[in-house]
Amino acid sequence: MENTNLSKHTVSFGLSLVLASVINGLLVIAKESSPAVQAGMQKMTGHHWITHSIAIVVIFAVGGWLFGRANGGQGVQMSASRLLAILVRGVVISGLLIVGFYLIGD
Amino acid sequence: MKEIILMAHVLFGVACLIASVWVFVDTLNLSEANQCRIRKMSRLAAAAMWLAFLVGGYWYVNFYKPDKAIILKGPWPFAHDFFMESKEHLVIMLLLLVTYLPIVTAGNLVANKDARRVVLWVAGLIVLLALIMEGNGAVIAMGVKAGLLAR
Predict the structure, then answer these.
(1) Helices (runs of H) and strands (runs of E) counted in chain A
(2) CA of B118, closest CA in chain A: separation in Å?
(3) Which of A73, A93, B63, B112 has its CA 20 to 30 A from that of B55?
């Protein structure tokens, strides 16, 4: 276990942010590639983008809460360097997934 | 009304951008005196971003369709196909980052160098993504203009 100076919520919601961002990118590819997925998302709230946004925000909130409950309620332990490496790479990769898909895949 | 909603979206987006730059610069010059202000500005950035997101989302769902048709028939179809499509999904990441900012600034930044590093990186990513969103918005507006001029 690494020593940490970061608060429980900084780590747990940081990891959750990466998880939600990656799912955001994958969900873009899934709904744009599959008319059935997009139609299902459209049906849920009336617009696929509203369903998409709500899903990602809920994943972020629930993910942060769950990561915070790990280790008997102490949360995931992690150094700032490791968290930042995961966070920055996660955000950049998620952004590239979205941009790359609309640039090449769509 | 439609135009006011759209301008409110831009206004709140710029307010979020300015507040995030403020957090970044204040964190670089951190002291006991400005720590409280950093927390307030990070909350302001989050509030502005949520307003920009909700107002922009309302406009996108209810009013964008005619603009989209103009763009797609005009000389700049990429303004929708690439810039709008990527903007509407990248902005969700921006929303998450800005929501995360007050969580990071809630701790004692003066005593915690690691938390300061996280604040700087998160605020930096917010500023970068917000500038990309502003740029995308400008290209979308130009796409509509080019489409109207070509009629």
Answers:
(1) 4, 0
(2) 7
(3) A93
Give the one of A17, A25, A49 whose C-beta lies nearest to B100's C-beta.
A17
Q: B90–A7: do the CB atoms touch at under 8 Å? A: no
**Structure tokens of A80?**
């700032």
Task: Give the H or E element holding residue B30.
Answer: none
Q: Answer yes or no: do A80 and B129 touch at CB < 8 A.
A: no
Chain B residues with CB inside 8 Å of A10's CB?
103-104, 107, 115, 118
Q: Can you give the three-state secondary structure of A54-72, one letter per residue?
A: HHHHHHHHHHHHHHHHCCC
Tokens 């690691």 belong to: B114
Question: Could you read off the pLDDT of A63-94 as tens digits, one per residue?
Answer: 999 999 999 989 999 999 999 999 999 999 99
Q: Cα dihedral angle (B6, B10, B13, B17), rounded to 10 degrees? A: 180
**Contact: A98, B61; criterion CB under 8 Å:** no
